[in-house]
Model the fold of this input.
Amino acid sequence: MKKQTKYILAILAAYILVSCHKLDVPPLNIISEDQVFSTSAGVEAYMANIYTLLPMEDFVYEPNSGFMTGNGGRWQCFYHTDAIDGEMAGPFGGTGDAATGFGFWPYDRIRVINILIDDLPKYASLYTPAQVNEWLGEAYFCRAYTYFALVKRYGGVPIVKTVVDPNATIASLQVPRDKEEDVYNFIGSDFDSAYALMWAPGVNGNPGIQQGAASKYAAPAYKSRAMLYAATIAKYGAANYVDGAARTQGFVGIPAADANKFFQAAYDAAKLVQGQFSLYTGGYPDKVQNYVDLFLTANNEDIFIRQYSLSDPNSNSDNSGPHSYDATMTCRIMTGNGLSRTYPTLDYVERYGSLPIVNSDGTPTRYTNLSDLLTVGLEPRLLATIYFPGMTLRGVTFDQQRGIYKTFTGSAAEELSDNLNTPNDVYAQFPDTNSSANLIFSSSSNNVYSGHRVIGNAGFNPSTGDDNTRTGFYIRKYVNYNAPASLCGLYQSTQSYIDMRYAEVLLNQAEAAMELGLASDALTDINQIRDRAGAPLATSSMTIDTIRNERDKELAFEHQYWWDIRRWRIADQVLDNRKLYGLMPYYIATENKYIFLKQVETFQRTYTFQKLWYYEPLPGGELGKNPNLYPNNPGY
Amino acid sequence: MNKAINGIIAASMLLAGYSCTKVDNYAGPNAAFQGNIIDSVTGKNLLTETGGVEIELKQLSWNANPDPYYIPSQPDGSFDDARIFSGQYSVIPTQGAFWPTDSIVTNIGGATTQNFTVVPYLEITNFTDSLNADSLVMTCQLMAPRTDNLPEILEIWPFVNSTPFVGSGAYITNYTISDNTNVNYNLAAINNSWNATIASTTYRMVVHGLLPGRTYYARLGVRVNDSYKKYNFSEVVPVTTAAK
Done:
């Protein structure tokens, strides 16, 4: 027994001795930093992850829910920023539904970028210096991009530019807010670093632009956008603001005296991009088709894009998986699945001038066919941006029709005055067509009166809610007319999203130039845009409003106008108890003609912007964790 | 057997240990806070609407950076919230059509009543209403208790509703045509800083197309271009149209 105990003790002792061995084996289930940064494939994969989660307002972005990574609602492309700013009538009940954001706070992503900026130089000897600089430049670009997404929402935020140790003291982790102006300066200098570090693509043996990645001239393109935001906030925010502690301390608002400095920075940055890209003209001489294809064909106007792939294994949740734009932005009768809920407004269309729908004597203009409105000489860019009644997509006609008038007498204005009960608009629902009613509506597109459908298949059907147009229009920009309807279902679309294109750089330059008093420079820029759009050229009588209107026409439905009316500080005037208008086609039975009436969209929603929304509130959870973020933005 | 008992004891000790967690023993929101927002000119309750004023409360006894809590005004210019945590608060009436005021620090507990006196941006005076067939004609003048640095005066709005709850958040939109490109635009647009002309003008607004044999409730509201663009109202008048 004793012997046995001795043996056991001896064996145990042997084990204990052996156990005095340091357990310093790399874990197999964690990829370490040196594994990532010591091969170019590792660095590329790391960069791809940064790009995939870059806060880009693309097809799937929703202004009330965010960037939709892994979110099952990401098929609903109609939750679009431009559905709260008056460009479109959409699913939001009003501007307030999405004006205060979604608690965006991407410091985890900033940390991922900071790790690369801090640690990649340790592995520099493994690569050529140009390659290391290219990667670092891309990282600076992505960091500036992310901070810009923050500052345009919140104003000043904490600037974190190193990798923070999570084990540090709480007090040191509670980084205080920086001033709005300092954040814009930081963004400008990061874009400058990106520009300085990256190689000039396609020259001196350098590789060309890699689609989906940033490149040398993308940095000044975005810098021109960011600096223009800062400049206009300085200039116009000085007069129109909500007062509060955050403003007094400079966390929101930029001194008006610095406006010109930022306009100059925007102008200089835009100048750097000149000659590197060009407006797309590959579809000439048909300027309508050219403008349609600009958004569907990879071309030299693209500066920074996001690509989507059907082969992404998590195709319904990854940002690089396919999107559902075709299925959710046009009419169901032209797609394979899905439904639409957002529609361009007549307010947007009238930026190009009034449509010829009323004669000089005030009576509605009679048209023989629904499509005759397309032949009155509308601007090619407008026709390429919007599907009008009478156009066709995938062989199906947009036949939206609001109803049938048996007869129509008098002027359009009389008919539309809500308060005068004119004989024309005594109405009834089909099949009640024999009564004294003169205007017939229907809740089914199959109902026929006098040999003619009462309403169209593409609208306006009250029984389908907002699945058909509320305004008479559908969006055309980015809709892939080449894809057959059967391939236009949910998560089947892969056209790239163009986040920055050369046209915007020209518009940035024009706006900055005009604000700096360089009117002739601005005129040249604007007329390049107009020529490609097929629009009449601007003249030297152009004002800043001409340039702003041009910007909205060109960049419509690209998540821009919302931020523009915010930074111009006109949102509270543009959206002030605002109703949005539609173009309602009617058929007149006795005349066998069509008329178009300008009427409030069918949901008659009201859109109002409150001044405090010029900044979003800092997320409550972050305020709870970090008291140094106080004061919150004015009014919250 | 002993072993089993030991095991049970150990298990129950473990369970007893888990029960030593902190319980939230704060009192519930058992205090009430109520009062009136008084117009300094008339001495009566401010003419407002639901949410026309917000009473902002910050509970200082909770922490140094309390999240604000808002009690919206009621249509009669009072406010009342019976679910408030007892404690010391900084309170200020805000987001309304009156000159900014100073906050007060007060202890709320039990049923606390606190009135606030505010100076409205504008008063609607000499308000009249009359029916002309299916049209309602309303006239008024404006008075400004303070004119220095008064923000730009925007417009006077006619509001009509089928219930006594009428204001900018509750009106029949077909009777208030605020799109100035519409031929039936019926706001009185001013868009100017306070001046002698505004002070002496009688503004007239017409609402067309009232239906016969109905009782409507109508009032006017005027707003200035401050941070909140809320309205100073007239009183509400009932209007009954003749039967057909």
Chain B has two helices and 16 strands. Chain B touches chain A at residues 64-65, 67-68, 95, 168, 173-175, 177-179, 183-184, 207-209, 227-229 (CB under 8 Å). The CA atoms of residues 34 and 113 of chain B lie 5 Å apart. The two ends of chain B are 96 Å apart (CA to CA).
